[in-house]
């Protein structure tokens, strides 16, 4: 909700006015598009990200929205040679939230404690950063 985010959103809305935007149904991207883009862009919802990728590569949509880590994997595929990852990365706020999490049954306190300790250790020793760079080409800890 800061000024920089609002300016990026205004620019995005201007750039996507009248464009065909693809995204997977029932995702945070769909919620984001419903709130910020549906009045300026033609939003197309797909059952899977593979479906919007096919339409993007075929030119039936102009842009697709999905998680950054998903697109980095997609862009590594040979048939995606004509695609590129561009634009601002929106994070946080009431729609996109702080990130992903893990859920445990309330009765699994021991498992929750083990998970939290292991995750903290992996964050503290740099393992999460190292492997996210190796697998996703971005540091997901930032």
Order of helices and strands: HEHEHEHHHH
CATH architecture of the largest domain: 3-Layer(aba) Sandwich
What strand order characterises the main sheet?
Answer: 2-1-3
> What structural class results from the helix and strand content?
mainly alpha
What is the number of helices? Answer: 7
CATH class of the largest domain: Alpha Beta
Q: In terms of per-residue confidence, which ranges show pLDDT below 50 for 5 or more consecutive residues? A: none
Q: Radius of gyration from the CA trace?
A: 18 Å
Count of β-strands: 3
Largest sheet: 3 strands, parallel
Helix content: 40-55%
The separation of the N and C termini measures 18 Å
- Roughly what fraction of the amino acids lie in strands? 5-15%
**Can you tell me the overall shape?**
globular
Let me know the CATH homologous superfamily of the largest domain: Periplasmic binding protein-like II
As for the CATH topology of the largest domain, it is D-Maltodextrin-Binding Protein, domain 2
**Count of domains:** 2
Mean pLDDT: 90
What is the topological layout?
Blueprint: H1 3-16, E1 20-24, H2 28-36, E2 42-46, H3 49-58, E3 63-65, H4 68-75, H5 93-96, H6 109-124, H7 127-136
Parallel strand pairs: 1-2, 1-3
